[in-house]
Amino acid sequence: MSEQFSNAFNFKEWSEERLAQVEQALKQGIDAQAPAGLGNAMRYSVLDGGKRLRPLLVLAAAQAVGVDLEAATVSDQPSALAAIHAACAVELIHAYSLVHDDMPCMDNDVLRRGKPTVHVKYGEAQALLAGDALQALAFEFLTPQDASTEVSVQAAQVGLLARAAGYEGMCGGQAIDLASVGLPLNEAQLRQMHLLKTGALLRCSVQLGAVSAGKPNTQVFEALSNFAQALGLAFQVVDDVLDVTADSATLGKTAGKDAASDKPTYVSLLGLTEAQKFAEKLYAESLAALDASGLSANATAALRALASQVVQRKN
Amino acid sequence: MSEQFSNAFNFKEWSEERLAQVEQALKQGIDAQAPAGLGNAMRYSVLDGGKRLRPLLVLAAAQAVGVDLEAATVSDQPSALAAIHAACAVELIHAYSLVHDDMPCMDNDVLRRGKPTVHVKYGEAQALLAGDALQALAFEFLTPQDASTEVSVQAAQVGLLARAAGYEGMCGGQAIDLASVGLPLNEAQLRQMHLLKTGALLRCSVQLGAVSAGKPNTQVFEALSNFAQALGLAFQVVDDVLDVTADSATLGKTAGKDAASDKPTYVSLLGLTEAQKFAEKLYAESLAALDASGLSANATAALRALASQVVQRKN
Q1: pTM of the full structure
Q2: What is the dihedral of CA B56, B61, B64, B68, to 10 degrees?
Q3: Which homologous superfamily is A10-312 in?
Q4: For A35, which of B96, B139, B175 is closest by C-beta distance?
Q5: Between chains, do A143 and B151 touch, taking CB under 8 Å as contact?
Q6: Which of A108, A304, B57, B100 is 20 to 30 A from B309 via CA?
Q7: Which residue of A131, A155, A163 is in closest CB contact with B154?
Q8: Interchain contact, A178 vs B125, CB within 8 Å
Q9: What's the burial of B111, exposed, middle or buried (CB within 10 Å: 0-12/13-18/19+)?
Q10: In tens digits, what is the pLDDT along chain A, a chain of 315 residues?
C-alpha cells in the first residue's frame, strides 16, 4: 500500500473482523439443546452463508455514532454488545424471510446460496417451524438475559425491528409483491413495494446500529435513515439488474426468475441501461445523505464502503 | 345472589371487562394501512375468535401482583397498559401458531373455531405471511412508541415472550411433536413435548402479567410460574380428553384428529379415566402453587377462576 493511502479505511480487514464477531454470536445463539431437526434446520439457514450485508450495516452505523467494536474490549461495552446482538437479530430476520419465501406456496425455489433450500433439505414442516423460530430468536438476541446491554436500547431496538419486519415493513412488502404478479405496476408502486419488502430491513439495520449507544441526535438518525433508504432501493435495483445479467452459478440462486414469473422489476419497467443509471443515482443519494449527517468521513468510512459494495456487487 | 356470596369474585363480569380491553387494543393494533390481503388475513386470524385464555392469564396475573386494570384509569397507568399490551402480544403469538399449524405442510386442517382456516380462506402464501406478520406484531405491542410503558418492563416482556415462542419453547415443542408422530412416547417424553408446545406460552402469559409492574419478588414470580406450568399441562390433558369425548361442532375444530393421525396423547398413554384424574391432579397442583405465592385469595381470585375454567371447559 502506498504511503498516501496508509490512513485509508481497510474495508476487507474491517468486515472480516466484524463478521467473525457476528458468526461467533450467531453460533452461540442456537444452542445444542434445540430439538435436533429444528436446530439443524435453523443452523443450516443462518450459519456460513450469505453476504451478511445487514449485520455489516448495523455495525458500520454503530461505528459511525462512535461505538468501539474492537474485539479485545467488546465484551465490556454495552453499546458494542447491543450492536453485535442487533447485527445477529437482523440477519436472523433476513434468514427466516428467505426460508419462508423459498417455500412451495411462495416462490417455490430449490436453490439458495448454491445449496438446496431449507424445505428441500429438511421438509416443509421443519422449514416453516425453523423460520418461525428464527424470528423469535432475533428478539431473543435483542434482549439478553444477563444485563449486558441497556434496557432502553433493548426496547428501542425491538421496537424498530418488529416494525421493520412486520406488516408495515417486510411482510407488508411481500404481500404487495404477491398481489402484484402479472400486474403493470408503475415506478411509484414498484418503489413502494421494495421500500417495504427489502428496504425496511436494510433501513432498520442502520437504525439499529445508530441506537446501540442510546438515541443519537435527530440530524444523525435522520441522515443515516435516509442513507439506508436510498441504499436499500439501490440494492433492489441492482438485484433486478443481476437477475437478467448474471447466471445462476454466480448468483447462487435461480437467475432469470423474475422475468420468467412475470414479476415487475426495474429492468422490465425502465430497461437495463436506465436501471443501471438509476442504481448509480441512488448510490449518489445515499452518499449525499451521509454528508448531511454531520459525521466525519472517518466515522462513516465503513458505511461508504458498504454502499459501494452494494452497487458494484456481482451476485 | 345471596348475601353470603356478595363479596365473591364475579368472573363473568371480570373477564368481559378485560376481554373488551384486549379486543379494543388488538383492533387498533392492525391499522387500515396494512396491505388489504395481508391485513384481512391477520384480522381474520385474531379478531372475534377463541377463548382468549392466554390474554386473561396475563391480566389475572397482573392483577395478582397489584396492577389496577379498571377501564376508567387504565390509560394513565404504565403497568396496566403493559399488561394489556402483553395480553395482546401473547394472543398474537398464539394466533400465528394456529395459522401456521393448520397449513397443509403441518396439520393440514380446514376448520378452526368453526370457520375455514386461514389458508383455506386466503391461500397458503397469505397464511404464511399473516402468521409471520402476527409474530412481529406481538413484539410491536410490547414496545409501544409513545413512552406509555416502562422500557425495563418492555425489555423484560420481550425477553420472556421471545424465549417462550422460539426454539426453547413453542417452536421446540412443535418440532418434537413433528418428530414423534407414530412413535411410542413415554409419559416423561409426552410431558416434555407439551411443556414446550403449549405450556411455554401459557406459563409465559402468567409471567408477562407478573412483570408488568416491574419484577416482582422471587417467591411470587416462582409461585405464579409453577401455577402456570401445572395449569398448562392440565390444559393439554383436557385437550386430549376432549379430542375423544367431544364432537367437532362443540370443539369448533376436527375432533378425533389425534387418534386418527396416530399422535401420542394422554388418553392413548393413560386411558380416558386416568387422563381425567391426571387433569384434576394438575389442577390441584396449580392451586397449591398459588397458595405458596403468599398472595391473598382476593388477589388470586381471577387466576383461580381461570384454572377452574381450563379444567371444566367443554371445548
Answers
A1: 0.94
A2: -60
A3: Farnesyl Diphosphate Synthase (1.10.600.10)
A4: B175
A5: no
A6: B100
A7: A155
A8: yes
A9: middle
A10: 333 444 578 999 999 999 999 999 999 988 777 887 899 999 999 987 788 999 999 999 999 999 999 888 888 899 999 999 999 999 999 999 999 999 999 999 999 888 999 999 999 999 999 999 999 999 999 999 998 999 999 999 999 999 999 999 999 999 999 888 778 888 899 999 999 999 999 999 999 999 999 999 999 999 999 999 999 999 999 999 998 998 766 666 666 666 666 778 899 999 999 999 999 999 999 999 999 999 999 999 999 999 999 999 887
Distance CA A275, CA B53 (A): 52
- Asked if residues A230 and A244 have their Cβ atoms less than 8 Å apart, the reply is no
What CATH superfamily is the domain B3-312?
Farnesyl Diphosphate Synthase (1.10.600.10)
Q: How far is A197 from chain B (nearest CA, A)?
A: 12
Helices B218-245, B187-194: crossing angle, 10 deg rounding:
110
Contact with chain A for residue B33, Cβ under 8 A: yes
Distance from CA of B158 to the nearest CA of A (A): 7
Domain residues of chain B, as ranges? 3-312
Contacting residues of B for A37, CB less than 8 Å apart: 175, 178-179
Helix/strand/coil for B224: helix
Q: Which three cell numbers stand for residue B87?
A: 395480553
